[in-house]
Each structure stands twice: as C-alpha cells, then as structure tokens.
Amino acid sequence: xxxxxxxxxxxxxxxxxxxxxxxxxxxxxxxxxxxxxxxxxxxxxxxxxxxxxxxxxxxxxxxxxxxxxxxxxxxxxxxxxxxxxxxxxxxxxxxxxxxxxxxxxxxxxxxxxxxxxxxxxxxxxxxxxxxxxxxxxxxxxxxxxxxxxxxxxxxxxxxxxxxxxxxxxxxxxxxxxxxxxxxxxxxxxxxxxxxxxxxxxxxxxxxxxxxxxxxxxxxxxxxxxxxxxxxxxxxxxxxxxxxxxxxxxxxxxxxxxxxxxxxxxxxxxxxxxxxxxxxxxxxxxxxxxxxxxxxxxxxxxxxxxxxxxxxxxxxxxxxxxxxxxxxxxxxxxxxxxxxxxxxxxxxxxxxxxxxxxxxxxxxxxxxxxxxxxxxxxxxxxxxxxxxxxxxxxxxxxxxxxxxxxxxxxxxxxxx
Length: 415
What we know:
Blueprint: H1 7-20, E1 23-25, H2 43-47, H3 50-56, H4 64-69, H5 72-85, H6 92-103, H7 113-121, H8 125-136, E2 138-142, H9 150-157, E3 166-167, E4 170-171, H10 173-177, H11 179-188, H12 201-216, E5 221-225, H13 236-252, E6 256-260, E7 262-263, E8 276-277, H14 283-291, E9 297-301, H15 307-316, E10 320-322, H16 332-346, H17 362-386, H18 394-414
Parallel strand pairs: 1-2, 2-3, 4-5, 5-6, 6-9, 9-10
Antiparallel strand pairs: 7-8
Helix pairs in contact: 1-17, 1-18, 3-5, 6-17, 8-17, 12-13, 15-16, 16-17
C-alpha cells in the first residue's frame, strides 16, 4: 500500500481524485447536438435561466407579461442589469454564471455583456458541447426525454442515430400527472386506452413505453411528483404505476426514478421560474420499495426536510439508489450538509450529484462547485478514518470517488 503520511497528503489525494475523475451526469435537461434548437448554450441562455429569472424579479418593477413579451436578448439585458450591475452577484445562481465564464477563459471583471455575446457567437453547437464536456470532465450526460414533446419527438421520428456522449431518460409525467389530457393523445397515436383505465389500458401503456424504449434505449423511466403523492392508493396515479409502469420496468430492467416534492406553478406569472416545493410523504417511496423488491428505484427529493428520511430509507432497501442535490437544495451549504449525512449513513452507496443542467454551459459551474464540496467532505471523513488506524490508500480513495460520481449508479443499473 502507498503510504499517506499526513492529513494534508490525504486531502491533496482526495482533491485530485475528485477533480479529475470523469463523471456520469445522471440527470439533466440537456440534449445531444442532433436536437438542434433544443440545445441551449451561451451567455443569454445562462442569464435567462429560470433560477435567475426568479431572483431578478426580486428587483424588477415590471409586469410579468411585459417581461415575457421581450426578446431573449432584452430579457438577458434586464437580468444582467438587475443581478450583476445594480447588485453584487453573490447568489449561487449568479456565482455559477461567473464561474462558468471564468472556466471558459473569459475575463468576468470586464463586465462587458456585448463582448461576451460576441465570444459565444463564434461557436458551433457540436464543438461547444464537446468543449464544455471536456472542461467539466463529464463522460456521459443523461437527457430527460419526453415522447409528448413535439419538438423532441420529431428528432426521434426522423431516426436519431444516437450520440455516445448522451443517454436517454424516459419521462412519463404526462401519463401520470395529466392522464385526462394524455389519454386522447395516446388514442390518436393508435393505443387502445380509456380515461377510466378500463379495457386494454394498462397493457397499451406498457406497449407505448416499450415502443419508446426500443427507440430511446433509456437508462430509466422517471417522473417528478408533488408533495401530496401517495402510494398505494385508489387514484389514477397509483393504479397506473402499479399496473403499467412497474411491470414495464421489470420487463425492461429499468429503474423507476421518482423526483419528489415539487409544487408546480405556485406563481404562474413566473412561468418555469414559478415552481415551488413542499415536504413529501416518503411513506409512498417506502411502500414502493417494500412491495416491489424486484423493481429498482432511483430517488431524489426537493425539500431539505426530507433528506434524512430518504437516507434512512436507502439503508433499508437495497433496491433504492438515491442521487444528487436537486434544484433548491443545489446550493453549497445544503450540498455539504446532505453529502456529509449520506456518507455517514450510506458510505459510498449513493450518487453524490447530478447537474440538472438545462443550458450546456451550466455543467461547468455545477460540477466545479460540487466537486469542491465533495472533496472537502471526503477529506474530513478520510482523516477521521485514519484516526482509527485504518489509513486509506490512493487506489481505495480513487475507487470510492468513482463510485459516488456515477460508478455506483452504473453498477445499480446492472445489478
């Protein structure tokens, strides 16, 4: 075993391992370059991202409707002025923009928005996607793919050949959350379903999901769920999950990913920026894991108040893999708290982070910021481990880092 002599040596080894290990980004809203208009990048997309929109309206004295009527550049100008010129950009979302620009080699201290636009205009999407992935050391990106998105479906219908850097995640929110709207669409596409779930409905939903699995080859099937979600239950969601989704997942060997705790449109005027959160009833997740041991489940939760219970559930059910610090808990203070708690309760049997990026540039800051925190947490834990007389080797540390940066997720898929 290579000898680690001091806590400083240990911290340096951990920092290097975390900084240089390629990650599997297991949940994003990004797209491969073949999806063209859905591929978002550049300074204006960074500025008008919904995190910044919500924060900017803390300062903007402007009707929502007037803001949305503006062009993308005009919206970005307003947000730049509100959050970067008239106030210091010290929030995590604003710091993320600046970290991204800095990692790209741009001088953020110039505060020159037109010059930034000129720099981004030189890039072609495919080249820029590759550049960002290389800088961020992201090996694979898992997209969020919905057959119900007209723009996206057109790419699949045209015969998307695939991109080794991008893998699919099959999103089924419209089926579970908007059945009355979705059923007529499935009927139009040739599936024999009914609003009351009678007849061939469950078999046909499984056929629909199987058809799209053959196209997409998804790593998992996923849904975002509100705080009031319960299981089991005498309601459409529970019946669809029990009789259509879970059998499909077993047949195809795919985990069912539950992203829990989002309240949609608490302020509709903000559009995508208007979603909130609420504490979830994790008894639903517990019941799923207990009743269906032959199914695999992925889970992440939005409220801070659910994080400890989620960790305890993962200790009890080996068919549950928890991942990431999602959305409103993707801020440094909470990432550190949550990651520390997970290491203390789960060792390395979880996936520490996912970017949740919607703009390709965001993988730069989200992984840079998260890696720094993950390294700090692990360094402290390895120092504590060494104090017992068990000093980890460099290869053991590198193995552990690979596991929590996506290797454990890959193993869970294969188990």
